[in-house]
Amino acid sequence: MKYQIDNFKISPKDFDDLESIIKNRFKLDDFKYKILHKSIDARDKSNVNLIFRLMIETNKKINNKNVTIYEEENYNLSYPKYSYDDRPVIVGFGPAGMFSGLYLARCGAKPIIIERGSKVEERKKDIDEFIKNKKLNINSNIQFGEGGAGTFSDGKLTTSVKSKLNKFILNEFVKHGAKDDILYDHMPHIGTDYLELIVKNIREEIISLGGEFYFNHQFIDFDKDDYLNITIKNLNNNDCFKIKTNHLLLCIGHSARDTIKKLYDKKLKMTQKSFSMGVRIEHKKNDIDYSQYGEFSKYLPSAYYKLSTHKDDRGIYTFCMCPGGYVMASQSEENTILVNGMSNNKRDGENSNSAILVDVKPEDYDKGNELDGIYYQEYYEKLAFNLSKDYKAPANLVKEFLNDEVAKSLRSINTTYPHGLYFTDLGKCLPKFVINGIKNGIIDFDRKLKGFNNPDAILIGIESRSSSPVRILRNEDRLSNIDGIYPVGEGCGYAGGIMSAAIDGLRTALTIVGCEYKE
Ligand SMILES: Cc1cc2nc3c(=O)[nH]c(=O)nc-3n(C[C@H](O)[C@H](O)[C@H](O)COP(=O)(O)OP(=O)(O)OC[C@H]3O[C@@H](n4cnc5c(N)ncnc54)[C@H](O)[C@@H]3O)c2cc1C
Asked: Measured between alpha carbons, how far is 416 from 50 in angstroms, rounded to an integer?
């Protein structure tokens, strides 16, 4: 018999003895168990607990108020045959492109995938070159290349999208190389070191099913007759060629500003959208861990936090927190500054970082053009670069920032940002309401997480691309106003993170093949 046990509590100290604790608590001799869900209850720092949902298989009857009969959930999808006479073309191989591509390939569609960046192995070298020599490859960097924007990230897999597809996607990540703790962790994350392998394995499955990849190739234009004739540029030699299709999936991500501007010129209907701007904050990892878990921190993984508040009708929140992580130079355009964060699977770096972001609404930037949000981001990213003219990120320390002063140098915390910092008034490269929002946020967050306003914590600007500032409109069949074009994922305004982009890609592919899928 298989039982489900809810609310099974143990001390973090005892995690390695979980099996013997189950055995003793239920007086079992012969049994198998599986962790279905694992979370940390740290509301009381003097009594932190791990809370499990477990499946236990045993012949003995288990009597307990938290026990029910276990029913296995089925997350599998069916794969109807792709029945059109064209091959779908997917532009962009981030999470949206990977999961639409994988599903369509399994339906026999033999998708053609166009990716402006390099294969993940070469992309890594391009990123290293930027870190070491400040030579940015504008098509192969932290934003662009195989695996998309989240490949060199913390790989957090949390999402507010409620969907059964979540479990399907997590299972696929595990099948392609992720550790299986992402199937049960309350806050699952993969880590950059595993993401690289997973992305490569998904590519290889798609190829084995007849899919075709064009890396270092950019989608640059299209015309429409009976088919869409799309123009692809080989970025190695600048030669162009055309492909005909009736299914063009635009999984381009929010940094493909040149592509979005081209789509706007080609009359794809789009609308302005809210996004956020702010800075990264770096603390010592041990301080954050202690603040979250007290003395139990030595038995627990690096601590995560997610904080938010409201002031003057604007949301202020921490975003993409990277425990034991690194602040990344994440730009895709020369002479701009843009930061974000990443971690390896072990999250064992010296610092923990997170963005502090403030809502930016269309009324803040609207000058009458749908692309005004993009121009607004570009303006501030260039301002931030022009302060040092050297990829040094504009920065300040919390104490000076809160007192409207400028720190002269780092104090007790070292930075992980690779190109060095340029201490300045951050108001020189961010709107005033964003600066005020960050100040309010730091003060409020310190009430919720002691030490958040550590005077030595480092604020590093600027983080301006938390999500897309435009949405390309689509109907219930997921088609844009131009037949055959499917706007998908974050760049088109339908996702905000790895999981939601993957779900959007998958749902688009399910719609194309007419898969009867019900949530
Ligand atoms: C450093 C960093 C850390 C992050 N950490 C996390 C995290 O921990 N958890 C999380 O959920 N999210 C994280 N994100 C956000 C997440 O990566 C994105 O939300 C997600 O990747 C969006 O997926 P997507 O498929 O819609 O687009 P993207 O991943 O942006 O992929 C778009 C792809 O399209 C390609 N492309 C664009 N234009 C063209 C063109 N014209 N021709 C050909 N190819 C083109 C690009 O090269 C790119 O590979 C992070 C982002 C960054 C930059």
From this structure: 31
Mutate to test the pocket of ligand 1, among 160, 187, 320, 466 (most ligand atoms within 8 A of CB): 320
Ligand 1 centroid–CA 254 distance in Å is 7
Q: Provide the token pair at 203.
A: 């590519």
In this model, does residue 153 exceed pLDDT 90? no
For 315-353, b/e burial (b = at least 16 CB within 10 A) is ebbbbbbbbbbbbbbbbbbeebbbbbbbbbbebebebbb
Residues 6+ apart with CB under 8 A from 54: 4, 5, 8, 22, 33, 34, 35, 36
Query: Cα angle vertex 467, ends 465, 469, to 5°?
Result: 90
CB atoms within 10 A of CB 42: 18
pLDDT at 214: 98
* pLDDT tens digits along 9-40: 999 999 999 999 999 999 999 999 999 999 99
Q: What is the pLDDT of residue 420?
A: 97
Its pTM stands at: 0.96
Could you identify the residue written with the tokens 């599903």? 103
Pocket of ligand 1 (CB under 6 A): 91-97, 114-117, 142-145, 148-150, 152-156, 218-219, 251-253, 256, 259, 320, 328, 330, 340-342, 489-491, 495, 497-499, 501
